[in-house]
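Standup notes
- DV: blocked on the single-chain target, sequence here:
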Amino acid sequence: MVNYKVINMNEYYRKDVFRHFAQTKCSISTTARIDVQTLYDYSKKTNTKFYINFLYLLSKTLNSREDYRLAWLHQTNQLIVYDKINPTQYIFHEDTETCTPVYTVYDQDYKKFYKNASKDIEIAKKTHGYGLDMLNHPNWFDASYMSWISYDSLNVELPDGYLYFMPIVNWGRYREENGKLVMPLTVRLNHASADGYLLAQVYRILEKEIKEFCK
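- DV (later): unblocked, structure below
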């Protein structure tokens, strides 16, 4: 069951900004490198997968503020906030060079999330279907790993006039710079629901979560 509450636009703290940018249909995105050395070391030490560990921390970060859990109900023209949002990740098939979406429900309990994500990935590896089901999975954000390159910039474009508020997140291969591992991370948000501060907060909160997780 998908739970959400309707935002009272008269009390919404970003109502004026929202109305302006909802009309201009503007999005905001950035790419920055984050330090993942401690998470890499932790994953090696605990014999766990770096990818799933990062996916968990990313999901935890995006669930930490209502600003990242907003959505627009086109049927009723209402702004809503989900109780939680879940990652839609993608598994690449070498033989067909295609991807299969993988739905994993976010759980704040790390062990439960890790177990479920591992199971979901293994199931997805056995199918080559695309199976993207946005109708039955409205509170899911895009979490896509580009394993082939460590890039410097990435842009994600959506159709003009489409009010889409779920975060779209991409990241690439980590690489060594100045004796530490850094990884490119791209975050796209709708400008009606987020500005430069809220976009930067994704990186700042994520870095804090990584540090706390690896203690």
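- Follow-up: The mean pLDDT is 94.
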